[in-house]
Every structure is written in C-alpha cells, then in structure tokens.
Amino acid sequence: MRRLISSLAIIIFAYAPAFAQDKLLSAVGFALTGRDDAYVKVIDRNDCIFQITSEFNNWQNRETYYLNAVDPSRTTIAQVEKTMLYPFPHIEIDLYGEKTIYDQYSINPKYPTKTERKKFQRLTLPSNELERVIRAWKYVFSNGCHGTRSTF
C-alpha cells in the first residue's frame, strides 16, 4: 500500500509542471482569442512568447505575442456592444509596451508577404465572457508571464 501511495505521489509531482503549463497555455489561448479551442504554439516559454496561426482561403496569418514586453498596468479590457466595424457584442483588449509586443506575418499567394511589428495591439474577441477574459489575463500575468513596467 505504501508503495502505491509513494508511486502515485511521484507521478503527481512529475506531472504537476505539465498540468500548470497546460493551464497557462489554455489561459493564454483564451486571453488572446476568447476561444477555448485556440491552438497556442510556445516560441519561448521563459520569455512568454506565444504564436497563434490561422488560415483562411489560402491566406496564412501568424501572430506572435511577446507577453513579457506587455505593460499589464496599461492593459485595458472592455465589453463593447456593437460598433460599425463589428456589429456584434465583443471584448476589446488594448495591450501596450515600450518594446515590440506583437508581430504579424501574413502569407497570401496573390499578395506580397507582409510583416508588421507593434508596440500597441488591440484585440477584438468575439465573446461575452468579460469576467472570464479578465481572469485569464490575471492568471497569465501571475502564473508565468511577468510583463514589464513603463519607465514613467
């Protein structure tokens, strides 16, 4: 019986970091997309660099987020009912940083490849789950990513 308990303890402790990382990846995916099924690729776990790839009609879009460069104190999250551009309820998140926090690489066979780097990025999430989005961002910045502070 003791062997069984000690074996279970070893298994639980061995997999605890993997469970925590999976939870972090789920939180990052939900925070960035508003979706539970978002696939997030880890580029650099220690520097909190994550990538989301999407494809639509032969158009491939790779968005890379540098979350340790984001200033959490300047991040705003708001529920928006409707706008001219988005005629449905959604959540807008404004991310700021003094270094690059976002870069987008787009490939389309009909158009030239496009790369964009930004110190500001507005995310528009097709979700009504404001409190859950806020919890996801809090989890991300308290369980893996530390962000950065503005110089003033």
Key structural traits:
about 150 residues; three-stranded antiparallel β-sheet; 2 helices; about 35% strand
What does this structure look like?
By secondary structure, the protein is an alpha+beta fold. The protein has one domain. It is built from two helices and eight strands. The chain has helices at 2-33, 130-142, and strands spanning 41-44, 49-56, 59-66, 76-80, 90-96, 102-108, 111-118, 120-125. The strands form two sheets. It has a five-stranded antiparallel β-sheet, covered by helices on one side. A three-stranded antiparallel β-sheet has the order 4-5-8, with helices on one face. The radius of gyration is 18 Å and the shape is globular. Residues 4-19 have low confidence and may be disordered.
Measured between the Cα atoms of the first and last residue, the distance is 59 Å
- Class derived from helix and strand content: alpha+beta
- The helix tally amounts to 2
Q: Unreliable runs, pLDDT <50, ≥5 residues?
A: 4-19
The SSE order reads: HEEEEEEEEH
The outline comes out as globular
What is this entry, summarized?
This protein has 152 residues and is of the alpha+beta class. It has helices at 2-33, 130-142; strands at residues 41-44, 49-56, 59-66, 76-80, 90-96, 102-108, 111-118, 120-125.
